[in-house]
Design brief:
Length: 206
């Protein structure tokens, strides 16, 4: 790489907000060492900052890992919205959205490691507690369910907040323990249409 290009890259990195530089460093460490072995000291060293600076932005290791998960989940939410634009009914949104997420998270090694390689308590907290996944709920799921409710498609007894949390837990379960029956995407599609759609939508919904 030409010296000028390398210098520009370094300058561009330094121009980023400190929090983003720390998250970049954390992602690099997670990719290299995995979530169990990545330490705050590793991240500080990779970012070229002191441990005190890391702790100033993230009070502990769990908070740092959640920050990485949030950023990755926010990017996934944006992609999911673009992908789901091709579907025009609530049934397809639900099923294909879940399948999209199950398909895409494993393609992101850092994100996948955070929701599948940690102990169940921490990985569940990261999945359900990160602001990025809350963003998926707020920006992707809530508008969809709100519209479905207005159109009379959603079952009257469905609580949207409970439904969103349940869907995220279903997602976590299948990421950590893939189905032994629905072993491919077509099988998962059939399973979702059989179990998910009747539980959420009225009989008359498509």
């Amino acid at each position: 790489m030409p010296v000028g290009s390398a210098a520009s890259k370094v300058e561009g990195t330094k121009a980023k907000p400190v929090r983003e530089r720390l998250l970049d460093a954390a992602e690099g460490c997670l990719e290299q060492f995995g979530p169990q072995k990545t330490s705050m000291e590793d991240v500080a060293r990779a970012a070229g900052m002191s441990r005190a600076t890391v702790y100033r932005y993230f009070e502990n290791r769990d908070a740092l890992l959640s920050g990485v998960a949030s950023r990755q989940a926010a990017a996934l939410a944006t992609e999911a919205l673009g992908y789901l634009a091709q579907f025009d009914n609530i049934s397809d949104w639900l099923v294909e959205g879940l399948l999209f997420t199950l398909r895409e998270i494993p393609k992101r090694p850092v994100f996948a490691s955070l929701v599948t390689s940690l102990d169940s308590r921490l990985s569940t907290n990261i999945l359900l507690g990160s602001s990025g996944l809350i963003e998926i709920g707020v920006n992707v799921l809530r508008p969809m369910f709100g519209t479905a409710k207005q159109q009379g498609l959603l079952r009257d007894d469905v609580d949207i907040d409970m439904l969103i949390e349940w869907l995220l837990r279903v997602l976590w379960t299948y990421l950590n323990a893939p189905s032994q029956v629905a072993t491919d995407e077509d099988g998962m599609r059939t399973l979702c249409r059989m179990m998910l759609i009747p539980a959420v939508l009225k009989d008359s919904a498509d």
